[in-house]
Amino acid sequence: LGIGFFSLRDAHNGINITLFRETTGISDSRVFTMYAEADRDLNGHLSWPEIEAFQNWLYRTYKYTHNDTALRPDRFIDAGGGDCEDWALATCGLLRFWGWNSRVASFAPATYENAHAITLVWSATQIGSYSYYYFPEETLVAGKTLKAGYYIPIDYNAVGNITNAMGTDWIMRDV
After folding, report:
1. 3-state helix/strand/coil string of 57-79
2. 89-93: long-range contacts at Cβ-Cβ below 8 A with a sequence spacing of 24 or more?
3. Cβ contacts of residue 138 below 8 Å, gap of 6+?
4. According to the model, what pLDDT value does residue 102 have?
5. How far apart are CA 108 and CA 117, in angstroms?
């Protein structure tokens, strides 16, 4: 990338910022700082406890408020929060920043009167006691391919679980 670094952590952050900017078009240093600081042990990697700590911090810092537009992470910061898809985008952004395979997924009941968005994180194996959606083989959801594996949910204030904003009988409608 043509970038020099003095430490492994600086290298991780520099590379993550560059790739995130190229992938998303977001160039907001507040977003980069927010995501980089999730690495609490400063080892250049993001662990599940760090994801939980980030989500708890996000929940304490930002408000869950309705809006009519999906907000990118920089606009989520500007607005001081957002609704389900905004939280999912902010969390998915964190995970993508750190190189995790994550998706924003929309769930709804059969009647489709309501919908709720969450982040799904792919894993080849089960993770601790987290709940998950399991696909034994590659699966199409709304024309998008999900590779086989475990998908751990992250809802706005729950890691490895879903909140009561979503019914247990709801199905994945889109990713």
Report:
1. HHHHHCEECCCCCCCCHHHHHHH
2. 90/58, 90/62, 91/54, 91/55, 91/58, 91/119, 91/154, 91/156, 92/119, 93/20, 93/24, 93/26, 93/31, 93/35
3. 145, 146, 147, 148
4. 96
5. 9
Residues with Cβ within 8 Å of residue 162, at least 6 apart in sequence: 118, 131, 153, 155
The tokens describing 77, both together, are 């910061």
Region 137-148: what's the mean pLDDT?
A: 94
Q: Which of 98, 85, 117 is CA-nearest to residue 51?
A: 98
pLDDT, tens digit, for every residue of 88-117? Answer: 999 999 999 999 999 999 999 988 778 999
Residue 160: pLDDT band (50, 70, 90) is very high
Name the pTM for this structure. 0.92
Residue with tokens 């078009």: 25
- Whether the CA torsion 26, 78, 97, 129 is positive or negative: it is negative
Token output for 132: 């998950």
